[in-house]
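Pasting as-is:
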Amino acid sequence: MAFPPQDLTCPHPAGCPVLETLPEVPGVLLSAGKLQFRCYDVTRGYDEFNPGYGDSRFAPFDSLSAGSPVPALYLANNEIGALLETVFHEVHQQSDRHIYEKDLRQHAIAHLLIPTNLWLADLRDEALQRLGIRREQVVSTASEHYPCTRRLARELHGRSIDGRAVAGVLWHSRQAELLQRSGPSEVCVVFGDVYGNHRGDWTLTGPGARNLYEGPGRLLADELANELVATVHPIE
C-alpha cells in the first residue's frame, strides 16, 4: 500500500511558533478499561487505526527507526471533544461557522473502552506550564503548522519516559476553547506500532457506535452546531 510522503516542512520557518525540539516531558497513564470517544470515518472500522493518511496535528509521520508511516488513532474523553477534533474541526473563532451534511453522513461516534494500559507523553496545560512551554508552541498552533507539530510527534514516538516507550500523546483540545462553558477537554493520539493495534481489541460500550446523520448522533451534532452558532448545510 502506497502512502503520501510525510510532510514535516514548515511553511514559514522564519516565523514558526513551534518549538524546535521538546524537552523531557512527563508521562501519563491511561488505564485499561477507561471510557473514551472516537469520531471516525465510516469507511474504516470504529477501532481501525489510520494507516498513514491525512493532515492532523500529530499524524501522519514516518517512524525514525523504521521509516514507515506510524498508524494513529485519535480519541477524546467526551463526545463533544471528539466532534470538535473531527467534523467540527474547521469551525473556529476566526471564521464563518459552517458544517456540511455530507461530512456528517461520512462519520460516526463510538464509545470505547481502552483495551490495555497506555503510557502517553503528557502535553496537557499543567505539564506545559511546568516546563515553561506556551500552548501555541505545541498544541494550539494554526493548521498550517501541523507539519511542525508532527515533527515533534515523531520525536516523541521514539522516546521512552521513565523507562517505558511512549505509545502516544495526551493534550488539552484547542477546539474545546470554542465552548466557554466547558472545561478543558482531553484528547490523545495513540501510536499503533507501539501499542500493537488489532481490529476488535477496543470494546464498544454504552450505545456503541452511532452515525451522525440521524437519531441520537445527529441530535448531538445539531445541538453542538446550535451552541457554536454554526450553519449545517444540507446536501443539494
